[in-house]
């Protein structure tokens, strides 16, 4: 008999689960609070025919299952794009990932020598068991390179000192990368066929939908609907209640009941507050201490007078507020309808309600025009139009307490059978799109099988399932059948 499943959030995790469950013959309803867009932070918005991402999303995964899913949804509509990104620091542009010889050359002989000596010191006297971002990066690159290439940008992103950010975030985002690995990569480029061995940060190409990542999720939603999945837009969830082994979901567009499972990719802090019976006090309080970082994108439509080829540029200059600049035409030429024009996205990291967030659109566009000229990417006079997108809860904050807070919630979940937390905000994991999708894939497999074959929390940052250190070969003390492993 088909299971009845409620999915909260139509982002990559929610729609991946919806598609696979619909394909598996289950009865599925998706509740999405956005009135127009699916895809969550992976959506693509548009303005006067120009398309732009909310952050920029590469489609690259070490998981064949994820890559196959993308191909199944979009097929030939996926482009192969060259990866190009740089760092702007002290009036100069540096390749990113760091091209060691270029970086040392542009820093100058004295600063380069000090950086190398600083790196040698970090290797000889590393911080043992680093717990914060600063100590982790210093161990990998040395303190001088940390101060130049990591500190300013990271504190722009998070709004807190690097000492207060967990080392988990560094290990996740720049896994396997150090000054020595950057030099090695410069000398010996990894072969294209050894994709599973490439450090994600060092990839030089990726796939990308012609009209942005939202195209993937709009198509996925349409295909899910064709299989009978019901997707309710402009439908926020108010409460979810477990009664007599089944779930009831109260929303702004009506009340629905009789669900066997609920999958939620909504922010953990918000979701736990809406669950009944209420979570135990310790778990509930822990969930409310989880933090989020918000951001906004100022889109500038410009005459393409000063073209640059980067997909994005990290701005490490403390004299400007912008943190990162996207070049949507370099992501895909189809994003910009007029080849004589360019479309840039200036990203400002902030907290909802602070000075940047509450600035008027006109003020933000004026700021972005001024700062992009100061950086030297184009002139204010080249800008013909602007648009602003605000994104609350873009990033779950990895502060020093986040891990214990999440663990308290995880421990309490065992008392709520059928409730799965999936995706970036659902699990409070600063992950990539493929990780979010893999957690949804495993949840779908559990539901279709009618038993807990996989623990979603054992998906690593490369979207690989590693249970108990045995690479997913064993689950709950028994071997997984071959057909499930594949």
Automatic annotation (TrEMBL):
<dbReference type="Pfam" id="PF13450">
    <property type="entry name" value="NAD_binding_8"/>
</dbReference>
<dbReference type="InterPro" id="IPR036188">
    <property type="entry name" value="FAD/NAD-bd_sf"/>
</dbReference>
<protein>
    <submittedName>
        <fullName>NAD(P)/FAD-dependent oxidoreductase</fullName>
    </submittedName>
</protein>
